[in-house]
């Protein structure tokens, strides 16, 4: 395998990447050319949202090819384009064969939610202190347990497991990988509806539930029907505000509503959006994200 490494401006990143894919690159990745220098500029995004920018002011675009000849030909073709005035070839270099599966797997370690509750990829042993273990591998849908918003929801579930006898129905709205629904099931919940607008999330949730021998119903959002003693939604502040009437209407008397995907500075907007139904409070925080909860009267 050979890697063609190009330097270009942020405005050219998408065109260069598309051109490289068209000339049969096996994979294209973009990095900050100024990484680890004083000129480095971090790009911050929010979960479930598109990247805020496609590249950096000065981007390194790396394209993998099966042979040196293919990489050289691709470089010649890209540089011949009229839009490529500011594109430069840094190098073409041989790439050592790697065990890509093992490399990817090594990046996902078990995640501690509480000392007793762990999310463990299938290729890892569960830590000896783990009493409740969810088996989950990274996949197409959001939710591996590494994001603070997911972790805070799971921590809430684990800390409130004494309420599980009342969780005869649970709604996980925006289920992604199904991690929250499965977490609730592992702590004693029943009658779980896990819904998402993304059909790939519904498929992932069903597969992950089966891998954990958990019973739940995963479907598109219309499947959410009636009242639930526990409603959890980890989406983002804007959709959560729009969903306020819908989520509130699904709360049984005495039900808990758990909301995540909210940044600290968005707490008040959320409180206002839910004020006609509930008084939301901040009940956990991590890395700038907050968990907001409320109990229906
Ligand atoms: C941040 S992920 C959370 C996944 C998982 N529940 C977790 O806690 O890790 C948000 C999920 O909500 C889904 N979603 C976004 N807007 C939605 C909406 N209006 N209705 C239902 N699902 C939605 C997305 O497709 C995505 O899978």
UniProtKB/TrEMBL annotation:
It is an enzyme of class 2 (transferase). GO terms for biological process: methylation. SUPFAM superfamilies: S-adenosyl-L-methionine-dependent methyltransferases. One of its GO terms (cellular component) is ribosome. It is found in: Cytoplasm. InterPro entries: Ribosomal_L11_MeTrfase_PrmA, Ribosomal_PrmA_MeTrfase, SAM-dependent_MTases_sf. Its EC number is 2.1.1.-. Its main location: cytoplasm. GO terms for molecular function: methyltransferase activity. Keywords: Cytoplasm, Methyltransferase, Ribonucleoprotein, Ribosomal protein, S-adenosyl-L-methionine, Transferase. S-adenosyl-L-methionine binds at residues 150, 174, 196, 234. It catalyses: L-lysyl-[protein] + 3 S-adenosyl-L-methionine = N(6),N(6),N(6)-trimethyl-L-lysyl-[protein] + 3 S-adenosyl-L-homocysteine + 3 H(+). PANTHER family: ELECTRON TRANSFER FLAVOPROTEIN BETA SUBUNIT LYSINE METHYLTRANSFERASE (PTHR43648). Belongs to the methyltransferase superfamily. PrmA family. Methylates ribosomal protein L11. This is Ribosomal protein L11 methyltransferase. It comes from Roseateles violae.
